[in-house]
Amino acid sequence: MKKLLSILLSTILIFSILTALPFSAGAYELKDFKYDLLANDTIVITDYKGNDKEITIPGKIDGHLVSTIGEYSFAFNKTLESVVVPKSVISIGFMAFSEDESLRKIEIPDSVTTIRQRAFNGCHNLSDIKLPSNIRSIEYGLFTNCESLKSINIPQKVIEIGDEAFANCSSLESIDIPDNVRSLGYDIFNGCSSLKSAKLGKNISTIPSRTFAYNKALTKISIHNKITTIGNSAFFKSGLEKVLIGKNIKKIGDNSFNNCVKLKSITVDKKNKSFSGKSGVLYNKKKTKLITYPGGKTDKKFTSLKTVAEISNRAFCGNYKLKTVKLNKGLKTIGKYAFYESKVKNVSFPSTLRKIKEFAFMKNDNLESITIPKNVTLISEEAFCDCDGLKKLSFKENGKLNLGYKVFSDCSALQTVKYPVMKSSEGYTFSNCGKLKKVIISKNVRKIFRKDFTDCPNLNKITIPKTVKSIENRALGYINEYDYQYDKNYNLKIYGEKKSAAYKYAKKNGFTFKKIKK
């Protein structure tokens, strides 16, 4: 009896689970459509296998209303050009029409209240669509990479727009965000290179990271007084010509207005408690931090204010007019990418400078001569890498210098260098300096760091004093690095004293050693 009761209870439990499932156990087909029956007795379209150019999705199948376009159901279709969604549908699923490369037009009724993430992602030819009036959210990546989309309506009931919703819609020309929208995601209009006009709803308080990045056609925008935050790279490489920072802006993220090559000035409301401006340049309120030097500013010379202690990341990046920069006494830090790819020819560093951060002057081909002040303790990764015009480099040494990876690598014009006294280094300091012929190593140097002179094929002679106690792996004489394999420069002659680090390195690595003549 107990066994029979157990079987009966198990049967009831299994039946309860099955009836609770949203889909029936089997799938159905009608011509080119596959579908399932939902628990509410309506149909979800799960797949389309046809090759038609134009279709109207049926509103009823076998007497059941079609309520849902399922996830991936029409995705990756190569032939569909036009689709009509019936008025019975209330939901369009995740990636439902994603990557439909020929789709040009889709009609969606106002009965639809939900369109899931990436539903139209990658529909490169989609140009004719009207969003239904009853949706409340434009979800993540809904129209990403829809390059033919020139215009789109945002319904009045929408309260949020998700990350990357319209990213890389390169034909989109204008956008009007309704006042009901309170939340914007990241990268919403990133890469919309044709966007000329953008109106921000009155209840938006934040312009998130990269919202209008790479919007080259966007020359102006009204930042209203309810906006308090501008995120990282919000307008990076946009076409803005001038910017007004209102009184209520409290936070501006890194690179917000950098690399805007048409931007001539940034003006700050005098009542703003967080930021200030001077001659079109953006600073923090106390002017101790230079945040952005506009990319379109046409001055040839610039002297930083006496109050500046820090130059922000990418501060001068994107300005190609500036030729001479005099940095103020009191400056301590130059940020990442601060002068990246700039055309500055002359820059004077103050004695107060302590840190030059990653990529600060990388790919600055006009820079010919630099002197590193005595108090600098850190030059970070690739700070002067690829400065092809750099011919003269000198250090005022203090023995406390720490170098990052490849700090002066790929400086193709550098022919002579005095090796600095370093506390530490991540190596490759002068690697791939193709014209480097002469290296001077003083008696204060104790170590030559790893791969500091790899791929310097014209460095055929070097004198190393006995005060050097350590020469790290492949520091000298290795060329043609490829996939961690090297050739040797057998023309290299290492001059030093017997039993010294120079002698041991030459013998261990198979290079010619010459004893210094006293």
Plain-language structure description:
The strands form 13 sheets. A nine-stranded mixed beta sheet has the order 22-23-24-26-28-30-32-34-36, with no helix packed on it. Strands 1, 2, 3, 5, 6, 8 and 10 form a seven-stranded mixed beta sheet that branches. Helices cover 5% and strands 27% of the residues. The model is unreliable at 1-26 (pLDDT under 50). The N and C termini lie far apart (109 Å). It is mainly beta and 518 residues long. It is elongated.
Secondary structure layout plus pairing:
Blueprint: H1 2-20, E1 28-30, E2 33-37, E3 43-48, E4 54-56, E5 60-61, E6 64-69, E7 82-84, E8 91-92, E9 105-107, E10 114-115, E11 128-129, E12 137-138, E13 160-161, E14 174-176, E15 183-184, E16 197-199, E17 206-207, E18 229-230, E19 242-245, E20 251-252, E21 265-268, E22 275-278, E23 281-284, E24 289-292, E25 301-303, E26 310-311, E27 324-326, E28 333-334, E29 346-348, E30 355-356, E31 369-372, E32 378-379, E33 392-395, E34 401-403, E35 416-419, E36 422-425, E37 438-441, E38 447-448, E39 461-463, E40 470-471, E41 478-482, E42 485-488, E43 493-496, H2 501-509, E44 512-515
Parallel strand pairs: 3-6, 4-7, 6-8, 7-9, 8-10, 9-11, 12-13, 13-15, 14-16, 17-18, 18-20, 19-21, 24-26, 25-27, 26-28, 27-29, 28-30, 30-32, 31-33, 32-34, 34-36, 35-37, 38-40, 39-43, 43-44
Antiparallel strand pairs: 1-2, 2-3, 5-6, 22-23, 23-24, 41-42
